[in-house]
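User: Design a sequence. Structure:
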């Protein structure tokens, strides 16, 4: 019997619904420094930070941000899960994907609600 299933696209295999927004300001908690990059592609599980200087996989840090045009304030610890280095000529944006480690459930639900609108 022939398998008639179509291969899933990467976005179809994601665990949580995402929204390709830009978060204008993400800061490290307990630091005066801003992350060098901008955040987008957010879900309750994490987000992507576009940057030509990605952090290293396994690196953990505290972040804080407010989702634009909302009252949702996020403060949590995160971990770098993957990186994409700058490659000349590539159409893919350099940066890194982070996973939220201790996102409160009420904030996760609020992010889900916001993304789904």
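Assistant: Done.
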């Amino acid at each position: 019997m022939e398998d008639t299933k179509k291969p899933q696209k990467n976005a179809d295999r994601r665990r949580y619904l995402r929204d390709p927004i830009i978060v204008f300001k993400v800061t490290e908690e307990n630091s005066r420094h801003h992350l060098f990059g901008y955040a987008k592609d957010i879900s309750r599980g994490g987000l992507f930070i576009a940057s030509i200087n990605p952090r290293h996989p396994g690196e953990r840090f505290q972040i804080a941000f407010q989702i634009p045009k909302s009252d949702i304030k996020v403060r949590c610890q995160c971990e770098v899960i993957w990186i994409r280095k700058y490659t000349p000529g590539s159409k893919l944006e350099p940066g890194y994907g982070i996973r939220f480690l201790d996102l409160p459930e009420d904030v996760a639900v609020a992010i889900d609600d916001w993304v789904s609108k």
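Confidence is low (pLDDT under 50) at residues 1-8. Strands lie at 19-23, 27-28, 38-43, 46-50, 60-66, 73-84, 95-100.
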